[in-house]
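Page header: ASSEMBLY MODEL / two components / 1184 residues total.
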Amino acid sequence: MPLRTSRRLFGASSLMGVLVALWILVPALSAQEDETTSTGPKVEYNRYRATITELEQPRSVEIDADGMIWISGWEDGHVHGFDRDGQPVGLLVSPAESALTWLGVGKPTVALSALPEILTITNGDWKVVSDGVGTGPGQLSRPRRLAVAGDRVAVADRGNRRVQVFDLSSGEVVAVLGPDLTDQESLLCPVDVAFDEAGRLFVLDQDRARIHRLSAAGYELEKSWGAPGAYPGLLSSPGGLACSEGRVFVADSWNHRIEVFDSDGKWQFEWGLHAMLPREGEGHLHYPNDITIAPDGSFAVVLEPFEQRAQIFDRKTDPAEIALREEQALFGTGGVPHFGRTAAAMPQTLAILEPETQSVLLYDTRLFDPIQISRLGGYGDAPGQFIRPTGLACDAARNRLIVADAGQGRLQVFRIDRDLSSELGFDLWLPSLEATLDLEALRRSLPESGAQWPVEPSALATDDDGRLYCTDIANGCVWILGDRLQLVDRWAGFEGPESIAIDSKRRRAYIVETGRSVLSVVDLEADAVFDWPTLEEEDGDLEHPTAVAVTPDGSVLISDSRRDQVLRFSPAGRLVAAWGGPGIEAGRFRNPRAIVSERPGRWTLLDWGNHRGVQLTEEGGFLRAFGPVAFVQPTWSNGRRPYAREPEPDATTLTTRDGRYRIAYRLSAEAVPLNDEFALEVWVFHSGAEGPPLGADRITLVVDGSMPEHQHGMNQVPELVARPDGSFLVEGMLFHMLGRWALTFEVREGARTSHARVEVVLQ
Amino acid sequence: MSHGFLILAMLGLLLPVTTDDPPTFTEAERRAIARLSPLPEPPADPTNRVADDLAAARYGHRLFFEKRFSVNGEVACATCHDPERSFTDGKPVADTLGRGPRQTPHLWNLAYGRWFFWDGRSDSLWSQALGPIENPIEMGGSRLRVARLVLEDPVLRVEHASIFGQLPDSELPASADARPVPDDPDHPHARAWVALTEETRASIDRVFVEAAKALAAYERRLISRDSRFDRFARRLAEEKPLGEDLLDAAAQRGLKIFLGKGGCTLCHHGPNLSDGEFHGLRLPVPGGGFPKDSGRWEGSASLLADPFRADGMFSDAPESGRGSRTRRLRRTPESWGEFKTPTLRQVAETAPYMHAGQFATLKEVLTFYSTFEGASNAGHHQETTLTPRQFTEGEIHDLIAFLETLSGAPLPDALRRPPER
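Prediction written out in full:
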């Protein structure tokens, strides 16, 4: 029976602000009888023991030499200690102001605070090791976790896309690793670090799904492995890692499992049963985000913030037991996608983010149930792909869907030209890429902007004039772009802006700041910025707002993930209604997120914690719940083509989707050959302008091929040569399958990229 | 029209078709068939300058049956690629010195291939031939063993030198086997290899590669062509009466399904009935559980790290198309679990099927494509393009009848039998 640990035990925190750590010590538990010294080929920590529940946004977990479990990231700012049965036994009180988000237990004990800063504690004295927030050596930006080995502490300095190593005795920075590790390897999103017994440093990059091993002496990169995916040895948004007995354990969050490698990156085995039922636990994992192994190797703790819990597992080495579990193991869930947290809508069309595949699902919403009609994206750096898509917005007037990608720091604009008179069908050709804006390149071109960190777009919204508002969680700002993606304005000073909605009529922007758990209102009419709720009304308190939307009459809907409710406020900021409440029943929500309206009088809410979409009446009444997989017959399987296509290639000239460039090309052969290499010559001109073609001094050209229906591209990378006369030669094109291919062109000038594609049918 | 007639007409629609008339082929189908036959001459392989040298092929033929390359002196290429079994061993997975994870592929029409092995970890036929000799579960030998035998055996020595020129006169070490073992530097073979001088290693590699190039010259001649289907396609192209002597009615119906409903030509296209590339079929995992063989994912990594790549120093034309294709290779995790599309020529003779011999008969293969029953879980986040084909029993029967017409004219006896010494 899992033990429930009441938060109230620590609720009256009169000790807050005390600069002394208070340890509530308990006698060390008697040694467990498990086979802690056995060395079989497989060591699993899969014998479920206990669950620690009701954890609010836990950040990390560590086990000290006495086998005590320390969980950081609590609302009260302290670090809570548990024994290996999950019983609360200790409390480490945070120093003033800063909640502790990580605790490294050792001699000395090291902690990471929310400020952020690295602290050491020796004999009750706290000492700050790091040098505040910033980009310089010793400074931090949104650090995630620490690792301690002797007098060295390594920190995943995530916002700076690097790892720093400090010497604890001198306080000096010993090494700054990243963003570039080598010509081939760089850090995009370092979230965890660990030292092994030999003092080698392991770094986990969440967005690249990659692990790097650096030498004990000098921190030279020795080995890198990992790639995104679901098959054994591949990782999907891994959240944490631990080293023990020559093995590297990775909390493979979106695959709901623990992957185990040897220290050279060779895949060993995996464990963890995917939780399939709501709240299912006791051995079943759901979005495990951190793992830690007891120093003596006898047990492990897996942290699952999504379920607000941590599970304790004992070591298991019995081969028969392991074999039995492998047999039971569910590998994935049969390709069933998950709804993410973000959605956007335009009339008749709903777009929902599916983070696990880095995709956006498109639904027709004219019928009773939303019907899946297309999808776009997929993991990668190529045009139309995403690393970590976060924000979605629709511009109904221009048939545009805009996707923000925090991993790449860019925005991609897709055209969704639906022919609503034709038969409903699934069509992967429906979205076509129009333009890309590299926000990160834009930031770098504006050194005076004050935006110091690599851009991480978090949410998008559009207004009635076609302007695009993009929140940036790294720089705490909102980038405002015109309808040609030109920079119009930038608002700064937000803490963790995670959602944004625009009321064009009242010239207001509503911004959810998760850093402060408030809704910030930017009132352009009144030229003022203020927080909601303004009324001291008990029911109106926002506990943890996550998403915001505006109704046609100017009311504001706010999803609150702690209250598990959607709150409706009048334009004046008065609470009008509260929908939902915790649960999975009809009309109840768990961790609700985006709320959008794809047709008047109806709301679609992403009930994220319950893995479903919910449709609600205007008054919040429950209409129906829906899942991600209702789709109709793929159109390619019966030859129907329900949607309007882009025009057939007019001989060999075409215009980019956004009308900026004219592209002319000539094939090396009469037609594109099947499964044989071909080349093309390409000329690019500004639309409507006379003059010579734009050469490599003006533009960057990329030519490639893909099969949208199969969601793959060519098996080789074409080579492009820029010629002195301004033309380009593209060699090494190869379309290896029968069917419909897209020949794609990408023209980049500055931070902006324009796209075009031609359909090539190989029969 | 009387009601009685209408009812009879409706009943007529419900009656099963009992005639066994062959189908007619549309213009589009005729064009599609013309793209599958005839099989042209194989493309040149400039990376192997003796690829089409008759003397090299004769020498390679001898090496193909040579058992002394193996650690126990009992295994030749021909042991598993048995010419009397259509160059297969008939087993679900290779099982010689040890049991392998994958099926022993047949050797038909390798000359048309782009990538070799189920996972494409070689990009030329000659570099493929190096692998099994040193694989501990196949022949268990080493490049040193090969070089020593070629240098010391009077027949091989003369034949080798007559094709490749003067053999190196390096002093070969006393140890029997030496080879690089990248994942186990403490292996005795690896220790013996690093103990050699660079010059000796270069000489051994040279002889090893030359022997493999001769093997490739032989294997390039193992071609299945002029099948009943090819003769049928010729008749169709010449607009002659089709008859039922080459393809009977069932096989002709099967051909129509092959081109149409079956969607087979999506991957099995071109005259060799293969795109030569890699696809994931979510095949059942032998022994159950989740898929563990990453196929092309590891295969492409091995290829990129292979010193015997087509654009490497052992290639006779590093700048050729073969070399540039390897240089341009795009490695993506989507290739996890993908395996090479095999040619369908000779398919009726090469059971069992699939990379791990999952299916014993063509009927089992087609039943899988029909229902996807037993398919392995594609995982949470992986896409699949395949949909069950939902064949009827009759359609499966017809498809098998068609596939059985893809076996070519017999190879000359001399190519199948061991060479005379």
